[in-house]
Amino acid sequence: MANRASSRLPEISKSNYNCLIKAVSNLVKSARFRVVQTVNTEMVTLYWEIGRHIVEYEQGGSDRAKYGTRLLECLSKDLTRKFGMGFSLRNLRNFRLLYRTFPIRQAVPAESSWRKESKSIVVGSEIIKKRQSVLAESDKEIQLRTLPLNLSWTHLLLILRVKEPIARQFYVKQCLLDGWSTRELERQINSMLFERIALSKDKEGILEISKKGQQISKPEDLLKDPYVFEFLNLPGDYRLSETELEQRLIDHLQHFLLELGRGFCFIARQKRITVGIDHFYVDLVFYHRILKCHVLIDLKMGAFKPADAGQVNFYLNYMKENESEPEDNPPIGILLCLDRNELFVKYATAGMNNLILTGRFKLALPSSKLLRAEVHKVLEE
Length: 381
Description:
Elements: H1 2-59, H2 71-83, H3 89-101, H4 113-117, H5 125-134, H6 139-145, H7 153-159, H8 165-178, H9 182-190, H10 193-198, H11 203-212, E1 227-228, H12 242-251, H13 253-260, E2 264-275, E3 278-288, E4 293-303, H14 306-322, E5 332-339, H15 342-349, E6 355-362, H16 368-380
Parallel strand pairs: 1-6, 4-5, 5-6
Antiparallel strand pairs: 2-3, 3-4
């Protein structure tokens, strides 16, 4: 009897044991994640502190002339001799740049040790004025200059390349919103994502996305100007058919979804619509989980034509009546063209019940100088 009972015990407790395994596994994963986060925070804080000491030493101190412009070279050699790798000249320059770019931390840093040890060293007036002025700065300025400790050092190195403060803040927020890897972040910076989103906004809209990242609350928030398909590795003047472009985008679906932005879920390619005995085909169909609606994308290897809007409107009417669920919002159409005439778009879409957004796309990276100039023009106006 005893043997029979003991043989049944593992079967009886199997489900509970699986729950135990799952619970312990979650604890281990959570602890490991916190360890990584803690190590990253400490590392970034260390680099920021080193940068702060360097900047303060350069701006004050009676013995700084002893090292002059060779300060970082001497510091690199001495620190490498004492602690090993990690203190190259390039790294020290990055530490200094980190502090200069983000001179504010959540907590007030401790006083520099070299200043404690040497009474003959006087803090530069620029540092004093900077610290006195922090309290009088607006919240916006403080946000722009506050160190984002929740990003990895590699993420921060990429963000330090961005010269414009509001663009830097945008990429920080977007990394936190979408969990971008460093590869994704690099691609978005290189493709001028901030500028391309900003060109569809007014001044207040630009400042808003810089503070909060890209918020998707209405269909117009989906647009970029232009979309960039540089991940297809095609020259800007390459001529291909709409079918070939569509196929290449599907082949690079992960990159394409990243370019489209948050919330897109792929549904179908060349979705067939049957009306009577005639068949029609929508290039690409997505569902947007934030806006809770279907998004139909029509690709045009040419400039926008008024007839294009009528075709997409036809598709939207069909999708609204035959494919949408009762809880879905009305479908949205996005026409992606190589170029567009704003007046053509205005007159072609006026009076339509359905929403049709018209965007441009490029096969190669756009001119960064031109995009920045356009954004500055909007901000100045």
